[in-house]
Amino acid sequence: MSLGTLGGFFSCMFMILASIMTSTDNPMAFWNLPSVIVVLGGTITSAYIAYDAKSTTAALKMILGIFSSPKDGNVILKNEVGRIIRWGYIVQKNGLQGLESDAESVAKQDKFLGFGIDLVVTGYTGDEVRNILNATIESGESRNKVYSNALKLMGGMAPAFGMAGTLIGLVIMLGNMGSNPDAIGPSMAVALITTFYGVLAARMLFIPASEKVSERNASATYKNYLLTEGLALLAERKSPRYIQDKMNSYLDPNDQYSIDRDMTETPA
What is the mean pLDDT of residues 222-242? Predict the structure, then answer.
């Protein structure tokens, strides 16, 4: 689980609920099911209108995904460098056949890495590996942007549907004004709740989720560019020391891999 994401979300919820509970004797006045339906229903259906159903559904699933731990980080990048260096020793001693055998299980877990290993083992040159994998990264990045854009659209639509719900409530309130003037206050409160829901949905859920998805996509893209360089160097039969120095140029100095310090065992 992503403790930062969970902590931020529940802290925000706690502050809002605490302010409501300490400000009124009737906290249930802030709950209105029709308002929730207008905001969430309108927001989600507008996304299905703007984007195809597959992309919108995937974007909605990613909202839950932001609460899980990210797959890519500095420590993992360092580990990826170490893995490529170890493969460099294997290629140096046992050739590409040794790489294919050693990387079989890893290739099943990471489709991008598996595709890259297949290119190296097939015998493509370093430049060919770079070109093919860079095209793969760019096409994947374009697809992933659709999901973050869909969530961003929902973030813009939620307040608009909140306002639409408020207008609906005002129309109903004004229609009943002559017959029951005492109901104007409660009716106005219910009407404004929809705007409240729209702002919360946008600023606590859809827009932060869009930013989180974009951030994680950027991290995955960066990792894949790092792997691309490492795989291209393997295809060029570069030495492990050269691979170390070239791949470390992509990393923060504090997170760089050192064969002498971090590699406890050189592959036989």
Answer: 93
- SS3 of 159, please? helix
Residue ranges of alpha helices (H) inside the chain are 3-21, 33-36, 42-50, 53-65, 74-102, 104-109, 111-122, 126-175, 184-200, 207-235, 240-248, 259-262
Q: Which amino acid is at 199?
A: V
Per-residue pLDDT tens digits for 78-100: 889 999 999 999 988 888 888 88
Whether residue 228 is predicted with pLDDT greater than 60 in this model: the reply is yes
pLDDT of residue 150: 95
Q: Which long-range contacts (CB under 8 A, 24 or more apart) does 5-9 make?
A: 5/66, 5/67, 5/212, 6/67, 8/208, 9/67, 9/204
What does the DSSP 8-state code read for residue 250? T
b/e map of 257-268 (b: 16 or more CB within 10 Å)? Answer: bebeeebeeebe
Residues 147/213, Cβ–Cβ less than 8 Å: yes
**Long-range pairs of 6-9 with CB within 8 A, sequence gap ≥ 24:** 6/67, 8/208, 9/67, 9/204
CB 81 within 8 A of CB 244: yes
CA end-to-end span of the chain, whole Å?
A: 37
Q: Are 197 and 35 in contact (CB under 8 A)?
A: yes
Residue 84 near residue 247, CB atoms below 8 Å: yes
Beta-carbon neighbour count of residue 6 at 10 Å? 13
